[in-house]
Amino acid sequence: MSGGDRLPKAIATTYYKAGVTGDQLTALVGATSATRLRLLKADLEADPLDLAAPDDVDIYEEDVTTVDTGANDDC
């Protein structure tokens, strides 16, 4: 369901918005793609894991370089 074919993307979007049932989805895109979409939908609907950031690991072992993005500049 990648690439430029818009029909599978439209079917997936409709499924995510509860416009297509699981059986209809399987008939439209096949069992493998339907399973992938079901798993993705379940993952998207699940509550995110509430994990604290690790405070005992220094991911930057050396000096950190920062970049000024100019986000506060007036354009």
Low-pLDDT runs of 5+ residues are none
Q: Helical residue percent? A: 40-55%
Oligomerization state of this entry? single chain
Percentage beta strand:
under 5%
Largest sheet, described in full?
none
Question: What characteristic shape results from the CA principal axes?
Answer: elongated
Counted by DSSP, the helix tally is 3
The N- and C-terminal alpha carbons lie at a distance of: 39 Å
Supply the helix-strand structural class: mainly alpha
Please give a handful of descriptors for the protein shown.
single chain, 75 residues, mainly alpha, 3 helices
Q: What are the SSEs and their pairings?
A:
Blueprint: H1 6-16, H2 22-29, H3 31-45
Task: Characterize the structure shown.
The chain is an all-alpha fold and 75 residues long. It is built from three helices and no strands. It has helices at 6-16, 22-29, 31-45. Helix 1 (6-16) packs antiparallel against helix 2 (22-29).
How would you sum up this structure in a few lines?
Helix content is about 45%, strand content about 0%.
